[in-house]
Amino acid sequence: MSTAEFTIRRAEVRDAAAIAEVYNEAILKSTATFDTEPKTAEDRLEWLRAHDDRHPVFVAEVAGEVVGWACLSKWSDRPAYDGTAETSFYVAERHRSGGIGRALKERLIEEARRAGLHTLVARVAEGSEASLHLNRSLGFARVGTMREVGFKHGKHLDVHILQLMLDSEPVTDSACVGNPIRQVDVLTPAQVEQLHVLYQSEWWTKGRPLDDVRIAVENSSLVIGFVESETGRLVGFCRVLTDFVFRATIFDVIVAEEWRGRGLGRRLIEAVVGHPRLQRVRTLWLCCEPDKMPFYEKWGFGKFPDELLWMERAHGNCEQETPQ
């Protein structure tokens, strides 16, 4: 791990050999790339010259030495894909965990917005948990998995596809100066009471007793909350019930009124679809009002097949008729 100071700048032709050195380390030692043969400085020079202003390459330097690089690449040569780019970044092993990878990725997102791109895509190989975590922390959501499409180091490998929509600024922990938020996976008793208050603002949760809210939270498989860092006040919430293999059902997606329209709903869903404990789950379910469907479709949610229906039965302490 390195904590050395570093700088990020545009790559130049003189960086070709250093870029090749960093990349070759990843080729030989990891599954971060599916290239299997080392690259020469001449090859990387040609590769550098093929990148244009909309698809730049950046390098990270420590004491004048290039120790990492990142780039935006065309997702496809077909013109309809012009608003889409793929992100890539690599950091020398001895300089990892020092924030260089995050800084490179943030620079790519910044440049993509400047260039007017619509969306960014990242491919992450199975087992690259650090890369998955970094992408999710920057707002990328997993939108699919290609099963066993690669073979390297004697093993067939899945590849996760992650995507970041650039149309609106994501809510990050440093967003909204003076009122930042952070994610939590356990609610304090005070936050459970705040959730109860949030529930009263929606017709589909209004009237739930506080004790029932406590029980529901305690028995959820996963809880995802967003709270104001300074006050700890809960401003966004959803919960998940799952068997962690076949299906996970998302419940109670709710955002405090003053936080609506600021990207927090997007952040909640991205936190669910990118959650490391849900990566083996085959299907995500949720129930929503018809006018909310376009929002959830951005993450690949669709209507149930016509032969499947949600069904409901009053149960427990509720009054009900008994079939005769």
As residue ranges, the low-confidence spans are 168-179, 319-324
Distance between the termini: 70 Å
| Contiguous helical run count | 8
Strand order of the largest sheet: 1-2-3-4-5-7-6
Helical residues, percent: 25-40%
CATH homologous superfamily title of the largest domain: Gcn5-related N-acetyltransferase (GNAT)
For the biggest sheet, the summary is: 7 strands, mixed
Average pLDDT number: 86
Can you count the beta strands?
A: 12
Residue share in β-strands = 25-35%
**Shape-level CATH architecture of the largest domain:** 3-Layer(aba) Sandwich
Instruction: Write the element-wise H/E pattern from the N-terminal end onward.
Output: EHHEEEHEHEEEHHEEEHEH
Shape designation: elongated
- Going by helix content, strand content and strand pairing, the class is alpha+beta
Number of structural domains? 2
CATH fold field value of the largest domain: Aminopeptidase
- By CATH reckoning, the class of the largest domain would read Alpha Beta
The value of Rg in angstroms is 23 Å
Report on the structure:
This protein is 25% helix and 28% strand. The model is unreliable at 168-179 and 319-324 (pLDDT under 50). The termini are far apart. With 324 residues, it is of the alpha+beta class. It folds into 2 domains: 7-165, Gcn5-related N-acetyltransferase (GNAT) (Aminopeptidase); 181-297, Aminopeptidase, CATH 3.40.630.30. The strands form 2 sheets. The chain has a 7-stranded mixed sheet, with helices on both faces. A 5-stranded mixed sheet has the order 8-9-10-11-12, sandwiched between helices.
